[in-house]
Fold:
Amino acid sequence: MTLPMVVPAPDLPARVRIHEVGARDGLQNEKSTVPTEVKAEFIRRLADAGLTTIEATSFVHPKWVPQLADAEQLFPHVRDLPGVHLPVLVPNGRGLDRALALDANRVAVFASATESFAKANLNRTVDESLAVFAPVVARAKEEGAHVRGYLSMCFGDPWEGAVPIAQVVRVCRALVDMGCDELSLGDTIGVATPGHVLELLAALNEQHVPTDLLGVHFHDTYGQALANTLAALQHGVTTVDASAGGLGGCPFAKSATGNLATEDLVWMLQGLGIDSGVDLDRLTATSVWMAEQLGRPSPSRTVRALGKTAQPHKEQ
Structure:
């Protein structure tokens, strides 16, 4: 298998934690429902490739995301994977109850930086949604769970256009204040550029949101996801969201295209000499397998380049 030549660049982290979102964010946008057994096997194969944080599913009402209606059936199949964190999305108190009943110990809430997307996604204003999340986060922390706060539309909104940095910082600060252990900054429609990324990260630091609480979640609509990721790494960010095979989008923002492909990210990290713990060969084979289940080729450039040489997954 071809691997990139390793040429480290200065002032970059030695290790990056990849927060794999393909099984949740990736599959929630599929037109057809993926069988529970296939989802479970996908997660197992991702773990076998070395990913240690794999977002498993969402405990959202099936009416809103029918592709993830099997959360109760799926989670018990994968929750005991050794050495793997399996965060789940919880939209409200009821979702948290469902997650805790299955012994989930990592949960995430999903906020918006803009009023338009808060209305489209949550049917509430930004402040109303924060008021709903506050008791959810508090209870999750009381139960000993790790809480991630997703923030969508950090760089642009399909209805409102460019999003003021101060607006994003305000909501980030609110999520930190309510007790979130980490934040994921989402470029939901993929319009960010590296300078914008650095400006937002600096503004968050100025408002006492430390870099070690921050992860980045880029979409590749305009081909900027890797460039934006590199800018974040240069700032010191060490958590990067990505989706195996480039699966995903957002069902509530039609201009949102696929996530940053995990394989493309790992290729860049390997070339920079940055450790992620991921076996690119096994990961590529997993995405080739998943693309076969979905009946279409993977959009990941690295999967297309390496897919024919990737070794198939071996059953344990």
Observations:
- Residues 250-256 have pLDDT under 50 and may be disordered.
- Residues 17-306 form a domain with the TIM Barrel fold (CATH 3.20.20.70).
